[in-house]
Amino acid sequence: MNDSIDSNAAPAIPADRLAQAIGIIARMRDEIRSAVVGQHTVVDQVLACCLAGGHVLLEGVPGLGKTLLVKALAKTFAGDFSRIQFTPDLMPADVMGHAMFDIKSQSFSVRKGPVFAHLLLADEINRAPAKTQSSLLEVMQERQVTIEGQSYQLAPPFMVLATQNPLENEGTYPLPEAQLDRFLIKVRIEYPSQAEEETMLQMVTRDRVGDALEVSHVNTLIKPETIVALQQLVAKIRVDDAVAAYAVRLVRATRDWPGIGIGAGPRGSIALVRMARAMALTAGRDYVTPDDIKQASLPVLRHRIAISPESELDGLSSDDLLHGLIEEVAAPRG
């Protein structure tokens, strides 16, 4: 079976193209899950975000498989992978690249930085100063890099997966709200269950030296161009007016919900629909349901709101407040 998809298909997705896309996505999911033990919801959300053409903010303690997840995703479509460890002394040029003078040729040449990749893992992004954070987040929006006045386009698909440790605050520079908004979703990675941890232990220690899981057995299924075609297919997933209105109601409800100090802006409803479209395709449909919007709400909105000081004193989190909001806002029926 040929795994290429015609990116110039008509607005109504032909049945054979839809079936082909669903098959590719299912196999990508299986390949990633063969490397990442457990974390099925995380895998599904990151894969959907990739198909939606968005960026992910991953929050979790070290050692839960964030790097492994990105490597496995990159290998499924032969994508270039880069990892940057963000530190307080990291400069924008260390991320983007810089111009250097070649003595032999008596001219300047450009050395491109690690940002020139399909998937970029920005590890502990909140440890870098604001100037370096801003330079990366600008690239996330524009998908191009400017070095010495010359613009360089990043090869699509381009996706940033940034991580931050929720337990350590010393020596960190929290991302401003406006910059957080550039991430399509924020995913929280939890500890694995005992059964999953036992499986992980067996995979790492059986006849092997070292303590790292590998992606050597993950099969490459498609090319980067096919991911771009899948993203274009996601944009054609149908969204009924009533479902779109439901997304807007959810976002607007965050602006005056008890316990929420600052609600989500209009970009929140746009992100909801983008993510819901990708989730619909991964579920095997060419249309968005209210349940897709509901399932996308937590990862899409949790980093777009700020809870009130009273809620913090009460020990409530953004997830606690959003759970109540999602249950209360009426979804369309029929």
Describe this protein with a few key phrases.
alpha/beta, Rossmann fold, Helicase, Ruva Protein, domain 3, two-stranded antiparallel ribbon, 11 strands
Write the topology of this structure:
Layout: H1 15-35, H2 40-51, E1 56-59, H3 66-76, E2 81-85, H4 92-96, E3 97-102, E4 107-112, E5 119-123, H5 130-142, E6 144-147, E7 150-153, E8 159-164, H6 177-180, E9 185-188, H7 194-205, H8 224-234, H9 241-253, E10 260-262, H10 266-282, H11 290-301, E11 306-307, H12 309-313, H13 318-328
Parallel strand pairs: 1-8, 1-9, 2-5, 5-8
Antiparallel strand pairs: 3-4, 6-7, 10-11
Structure in words:
- With 334 residues, the protein is α/β, with parallel strands linked by helices.
- The chain folds into two domains: 10-236, P-loop containing nucleotide triphosphate hydrolases (Rossmann fold), CATH 3.40.50.300; 237-334, Magnesium chelatase subunit I, C-Terminal domain (Helicase, Ruva Protein, domain 3).
- It contains 13 helices and eleven strands.
- It is globular, with a radius of gyration of 21 Å.
- The model is unreliable at 4-10 (pLDDT under 50).
Please summarize what this structure is:
The protein has 334 residues and is α/β, with parallel strands linked by helices.
Q: What is the number of beta strands?
A: 11
Secondary-structure content class: alpha/beta
- Which residue ranges are poorly predicted, with pLDDT under 50 across at least 5 consecutive positions? 4-10
CATH class of the largest domain: Alpha Beta
Rg, please? 21 Å
Can you count the helices? Answer: 13
Major beta sheet, specifics?
5 strands, parallel
The CATH architecture classification of the largest domain is 3-Layer(aba) Sandwich
Cα(first) to Cα(last) distance is 37 Å
Residue-averaged pLDDT, rounded?
88
Strand arrangement within the widest β-sheet reads 2-5-8-1-9
Topology as a string of helices (H) and strands (E): HHEHEHEEEHEEEHEHHHEHHEHH
